[in-house]
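Q: Here's a chain of 314 amino acids. Please give me its 3D structure as tokens.
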Amino acid sequence: MQKLAFYSGPDYLELKRDPDKWVIEQLLPVGGTTNLYGKPKSRKSFMALEMAAAVANQRSDWSGFKIRKTGPVAYLQADTPRGEWAERVEKLQRRGYDTSKLFFADLYTIPYPFNILDTDHNLQLLEQVKTLDPVLVVIDTLREVFRGNENDSDIMRDVIGNLTAVSRPAAVLLLSHARKDSITSRDDDLMDGNRGSSYIPGRMDVIIKLGKKMTLEGRATGHREFKVRHHRDGWVAVKGMVEKDEWLRLARILLGKFPSLKVAQAAAYIISGTAEDENPEEEEGVRTGPWRTIRDTITPLFKHEEEDEWTDAA
């Protein structure tokens, strides 16, 4: 059992640490926890499976994101029947991936129903992870590996704590579903779109929402959005970051129509999709999700606002 200890700054910097910060840059921090979520059938598992295969195959990148650390991957999937899952693994092999360092547990190779809060189940997973010594552990899906109320923050604290403890020092990727009332919403607030207790997104190092686009938010990356392409076989390819140039273009359109418009209001119009309307409504607009990122990007165009602030101060 790990004993509690404090270290001075110089001694702390001498402690052993992994030279790599990321397994997959921006997505999977070494020793950290990432939550990938989306509505049912949004192809989360396809994305997670190919990410895992890329790491296990020592690829240099996955869909443009650099892979910094490679090695075995443990993938516990308790959400898909074996026949369907085996077909996905076969498709993966046909795409040129070697699956010999991808290790799978499914509904028929785990105690069912599995419960990470059960001491016996917990120890079995710990034993397997220690044997495999993976760089990444994937849990697909979070709701299927514990019994209890997912809206209870105390239960979810124990669930996340147990999963990260048995996986240590591997990175952990948790798949989960979006809240039902967020599926048709245009709200890009990743902290509010996930199903279950708010403890889950608050505990994560990185949150990824997959839908028609991929939205990413991390402690070290900030809020970013990416275009995605869904292949007919189920695979998801990230096509590139949503261009900040587009935000600047829309801001210029707004300034041309409303020269005295404030930067905060312009950012709200852009995120709400009304920036190119003939007469956007005079209202506060949407100020969630990437609103701050958009505001910061377009601020240099709003010199009149800075001048107004200096004038007021004088």
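Q: Can you summarize the key feature?
A: Residues 227 and 239 are 5 Å apart (CA to CA).
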